[in-house]
Design a protein that fits this description.
The protein has about 375 residues and is mainly β. It has a domain at about 30-235. The protein is built from 2 helices and 25 strands.
């Protein structure tokens, strides 16, 4: 059995991409990574929900929804999932096309709770037919991640369909865009940096992780017979520039962070897994208050290595094994006690300043194990 595994490593809010080259990003700002992009539909909502891979903790989940022809007056009443994440519209993200009587909208959940596998979109009126694509990104600011929103309404038909352009304000942002067209989207235009994530329902769904601020929009190639509409949204990366007590990651510790800490203590907000070891009680509140008064922040951001496994191309995969070594090339020691059935794994037993080398194998239902994947290297930072 051959393995087609690839590994993404996130080290203390920094990403390492293994795939011919190795990049280490300083922990002052996270590198955003795409965890998953899942198509759902066309189908009737909310009678049919959307199944996705299990979500991680502290990520942003983005849901873009388009109506079928005749659904232009539709709006999104709510979005929910089975992990209890709270979704809201991404600003004024609803776009419309009066010519085709269609619409598109984008909603999101910030600082996600882990384990969401079912997403339910409830349009108004209920029972409307449409299509959804659901993205999950890691490395996004856990609180107030939304940066920019743009829409295009009733655009004239061409052989290409531009998405609504957003002008980002930060150097590292995740951008998602959707176009609801009369006709069929066939792909991304030549030279456009966006990734074409889906053509479900004949519409365009794409994302791009920009490394610098600027104006961004996807250019889809399409067989367009009429008008179209588009919605685009961007999300900011997480930052640790203000230290562990800077919970909203705006570069300063103030009353806004105190309120977030209180809400975590009350269970109104999820506790980030890497803050104080995932314990956000009254101690964190006092730590943030102290820091807001100008004293040193005693809260800590724990070091860890988070691995994302690209699914094996082989059939009947039962799970994965993850191995680690302190020396390039091994010998490797298996970290998991049972098969890893998700496509992510977190190694929390790491030492600051230590360099680790990781490989993974795929295991099928007959307990046959592939060879090692390519090796991924991670050096754990010595500071937050």
């Amino acid at each position: 059995m051959r393995s087609t595994l690839a590994i993404l490593l996130r080290v203390n809010r920094g990403l390492l991409l293994i795939g011919g080259c190795l990049t280490f990003l300083l922990p002052a700002q996270a590198q955003i990574g795409l965890v998953q992009a899942t198509s759902c539909g066309p189908q009737t909502f909310p009678a049919q929900a959307c199944a996705i891979a299990s979500t991680g903790n502290g990520n942003v989940i983005v849901v873009a929804w388009t109506s079928e022809n005749g659904g232009g007056e539709t709006s999104i009443a709510s979005v929910s999932d089975n992990a209890g994440n709270i979704y809201s519209e991404a600003g004024a993200a609803r776009s419309t096309d009066t010519g085709a009587n269609t619409m598109a909208d984008i909603w999101y959940a910030q600082n996600s709770l882990a384990g969401a596998t079912i997403v339910t979109v409830t349009p108004s009126p209920s029972g409307t037919s449409g299509t959804a694509v659901i993205w999950e990104f890691s490395g996004v600011a856990p609180f107030t991640p939304l940066d920019q929103t743009a829409v295009l309404n009733s655009q004239s038909a061409t052989s290409t369909a531009w998405g609504a352009p957003v002008v980002t304000t930060a150097a590292n942002e995740a951008i998602v865009s959707v176009a609801n067209v009369q006709g069929t989207v066939t792909g991304i235009g030549s030279g456009n940096p966006f990734s074409n994530d889906s053509g479900a329902g004949g519409e365009g769904w794409a994302h791009y992780i920009a490394s610098s601020a600027g104006t961004f929009a996807p250019l889809w190639t399409a067989s367009v017979s009429g008008t179209y509409c588009s919605s685009t949204v961007s999300f900011k990366a997480a930052s640790t520039a203000g230290g562990a007590c800077d919970l909203n990651q705006d570069g300063v510790v103030n009353v806004a962070d105190v309120q977030l800490a209180v809400n975590m203590d009350l269970g109104l907000l999820a506790c980030p897994a890497d803050i104080n070891g995932g314990v956000c009680g009254s101690t964190l509140v006092q730590q943030v208050v102290t820091a807001a008064l100008g004293q040193e922040c005693a809260a800590t951001i724990g070091h860890f290595v988070s691995l994302t496994l690209a699914e094996s191309g082989s059939s009947n995969i039962a799970g994965y094994n993850v191995y680690r070594s302190a020396t390039s090339g091994g010998p490797y020691t298996m970290l998991n006690s049972s098969l890893v059935t998700a496509t992510s794994y977190t190694d929390s037993d790491v030492i600051a300043g230590q360099t680790y080398y990781y490989v993974a194998t795929a295991v099928d239902s007959g307990n046959n194990q592939s060879g090692y994947s390519g090796e991924a290297q991670a050096t754990v930072p010595t500071t937050i």
